[in-house]
Amino acid sequence: MIPEKTNSMGVNIAISIFVFLVLYLGYNSITGNNSQDDGVLGEPQSTTQEMVSASSQEVTQTFNELKNLNRSIVNSVALLNLPAFGQLKDNSVQVSPEPTGRENPFAQTDWKTRFDAGSR
């Protein structure tokens, strides 16, 4: 390599490192993260431990809710599979027979046919 190019490349690298350090130190002084007990992702360890504790409690609570839900489903299936449940009949309401609908429910109705004929 040409010595002048090597020299200018070295100067560029040194300036880049210097600018990075100034930006890093400026950011840290502005945000106030000067504590030495930083944990995960720059958070203080006590905050990280509280977050882990809260997360584990939430996971435990969700697991217990799912376990209770599973028990409820098992009990419901057991109830619905009983022969007595299958033989239940509701005779309290009499259902009167009603006429069925049109033969072809997709065919145009009479009033629609007359309306279309009158609008032409």
Walkthrough of the structure:
By secondary structure, this protein is mainly alpha-helical. Among the domains are: 1-33; 40-81. 65% of the residues lie in helices and 0% in strands. It is built from four helices and no strands. It has helices at 3-31, 45-80, 83-86, 110-118.
Tertiary shape: elongated
Which class best fits the helix and strand makeup? Answer: mainly alpha
Mean pLDDT: 80
Q: Could you give the distance between the termini?
A: 91 Å
> How much strand?
under 5%
Strand count, sense and closure of the main sheet?
none
Name its key features.
120 residues; 4 helices
SSE order and pairing:
Blueprint: H1 3-31, H2 45-80, H3 83-86, H4 110-118
In a few lines, what is going on in this structure?
This protein has helices spanning 3-31, 45-80, 83-86, 110-118. With 120 residues, the chain is an all-alpha fold.
